[in-house]
Design brief:
Number of helices: 8
CATH topology of the largest domain: Rossmann fold
CATH superfamily of the largest domain: HUPs
Number of domains: 2
Shape: elongated
Helix content: 10-25%
Distance between the termini: 63 Å
CATH class of the largest domain: Alpha Beta
Order of helices and strands: EEEHHEEHEHEEEEEEHEHEHEEH
Bound molecules: flavin-adenine dinucleotide
Length: 321
């Protein structure tokens, strides 16, 4: 019987991507149900250089798979994961929902008859069976998926959905012997996308976001100044970005940025659509200000104010200017 959980580390340019540790957290709640062992596999030449970054609680074993290239290669990763999974027989394989996994995960699942889902943001178990949650119908509702009859399930998990573990630990390590066949692709160069010159919302610890309740473009400057006086970065919901009132880089949510490092999120005039929540509902302290007491944003808020965002802004300006 398939047992245990295998997490595939994602790395780029010699740096472990933060989503890897989020996958480790995602797996913790399933340990009893799917077996006790959690293994993290690092694929690529020189993978042991990531061991220190993977020194966190919750990992039982690090497995290093040496390949010709230190960077991602779809054919190589597909074959390497398939070979390791054939040896380990895990009940669950977790990969990041990323541009990398889009290049190999579906093919891997089909080849080995795994259960499969992408863009998963919730993991649970019911009656001893794995349940994965993802969006459905254009993200208008949440869909809970089970995978009856599948010994192994491969899930691509949305970055920013789980908090990385904090405690340090020293997992056991081993190498997995793997001979890569010739790949159909070759890494030629790594090119950083041109900078938009704007701040990176994924790194901000304090965000004040405005939604359609802001009314019109002329009101944006006022909230920009308020954010500055509070020491926050100004974010927004999609209608505000779509109207061109703030750059797209400020949009929080499913088709925008995830407030991944945010500790305090003030949502003003934002209803709390599921797509917006996808980018901020994990934040520890959410303060919501909305005139509608039934607005969904209050379901994720630690502190809620049923009131007019302009009046609250007046008060905050008085207190903090
Ligand atoms: C595929 C897809 C992807 C999407 N991706 C994103 C995304 O990444 N991010 C995102 O945000 N949305 C996204 N959306 C859009 C999303 O569905 C909602 O339409 C959007 O989040 C609504 O933005 P809002 O809350 O600002 O506006 P509304 O839903 O119109 O809400 C405005 C809120 O302001 C309140 N309000 C009005 N006046 C005041 C006032 N004076 N004071 C206080 N409160 C007031 C109202 O009560 C209301 O709750 C996506 C949609 C789809 C289909």
């Amino acid at each position: 019987m398939a047992q245990g959980i295998l997490v595939i580390a994602e790395h780029r340019q010699q740096a472990l991507r933060p989503v890897t540790l989020e996958l480790v957290s995602a797996a913790q709640g399933l340990r009893g149900t799917l077996g006790d062992k959690l293994t993290v596999a690092v694929i690529g030449h020189g993978g042991r250089s990531h061991a220190a970054a993977l020194g966190v609680a919750g990992i039982d074993e690090l497995v290093f798979i040496d390949t010709p290239d230190s960077e991602f290669d779809a054919d190589t990763w597909e074959a390497a994961i398939g070979a390791l999974a054939a040896q380990m027989q895990p009940a669950l394989i977790l990969v990041a929902h990323s541009v990398d996994s889009m290049a190999y995960a579906a093919a891997l699942a089909v080849k080995h008859d795994y259960g499969f889902a992408t863009d998963v943001f919730g993991l649970d178990s019911a009656d001893g069976a794995l349940v994965a949650t993802r969006g459905g119908y254009g993200q208008k509702l949440n869909v809970e998926l089970e995978f009856p009859g599948r010994a192994t399930v491969l899930l691509a998990v949305r970055p920013g959905s789980f908090k990385p573990p904090q405690a340090a630990a020293q997992p056991a390590t081993r190498d997995f012997a793997f001979t890569a066949k010739a790949s159909r692709t070759k890494n030629v160069a790594y090119i950083e996308p041109a900078s938009t010159g704007d701040i990176d919302m994924t790194t901000r610890e304090f965000i004040l976001s405005v939604g359609r309740g802001v009314g019109e473009q002329d009101n944006i400057d006022r909230f920009r100044e308020l954010a500055e006086s509070l020491g926050a970065s100004l974010g927004c919901s999609r209608p505000v970005a779509d109207s061109g009132w703030l750059p797209k880089s400020r949009q929080i949510g499913q088709s925008g940025k995830t407030a991944a490092q945010c500790k305090l999120y003030i949502a003003m005039g934002i209803s709390g659509a599921i797509q917006h929540l996808a980018g901020m509902k994990h934040v520890e302290t959410v303060v919501a200000i909305n005139t509608d007491p039934n607005a969904s944003i209050f379901t994720v808020a630690r502190y809620g104010v049923v009131g007019d965002m302009f009046e609250i802004a007046d008060e905050l300006e008085k207190q903090f200017s």
